[in-house]
Amino acid sequence: MSKAQDPPRGFFPFGNPFRMLSPKGSELSPWLLSLLNGFESLLAARLKKLMPKNKDDILTLSWMKLAMESLCETHNNINTLITDLHLPVSNWEGKWVDVYLDISVKLLDLCNAFSSELTRLSQGDLFLKCALHNLKSDSGEKYLQARSSLDSWRQHVNANNPRIENCRAVLDSLVKSLSLPKVKNSPKGKVLMRAFYGVKVQTVYICSVFTAAWSDFPKDLFDLPVSVKPLWAKEFTDMQSLVNGEIRDMLSSGRSTVLKELESVDASVEKLYPLIQDGVAPVEVESFEGYVTELGSEAEKLSQGLDRLLEEVDSFFKMTLSGRDVLLCNLRSSDSFSGKAIGEDLDCQ
């Protein structure tokens, strides 16, 4: 793999992980192959849904919410697959567990960063509400206060968030984990590791899109090459190509933001600002009232979209934390004597 700061980022610094699924003299049973194909087919369908029908849908809050929902579904599917494999945690190789725990910590860090940015943007709604309240007045003093609120909103939403800036390092480290551990003499383990690979590819990519959307920095967007063997490879490649191309076009166009709802509010502010900059009643009253109504509508869409996306990010955080806790509990159980106290079992549950 090339260095993290040098695009493109390679996938297989330690060899091709898909070689483990076709070792000499070894084949997966029909049952295991069915489980793997079922998981990968669901992932393919999920990625296909992320392919926007219209390029204007890319980096809308509704598309980002759909992407986060997709991640939650994929992580739910991997939990189901683990159950179907009947592969107790006690049979997991130590390196598998280490990889899982390390990745889960990084995902929690990313979720915290995304939640902090969504919360920060939501706090800007207070400035817009104050501006709209004052814009409904006929007082020149109120127009000056509205202008001040709009200035504050601009400064607030354009401020840098250190947590988002730190996401790049976290994502770079996750890319390094995309190389899978070798699995010896465990067909179930091979299926599990290949499924984990698909989960990690989708997770790293979606998180890189979120980071690029909030940092407005094209280098935060990943181009992930994938093997052609997984059933989801084509859907992922097509989706990544379209989304990355459109985001890079937006970032190179000089826009103040690439987040569509935020851009719409900013456009409404741009229309209103010249009319109130002197603190006098606008001459074009009809146009002015229309701009105020438009700002109120766009601000409401932004506020609702941020709230809904924050709910999905929180759901993903809780899912990741819950899965980590279950794994740790099962590990403790497997290392304990069979006759341990009932209270310990209850604690784990």
From TrEMBL:
This is Protein BPS1, chloroplastic.
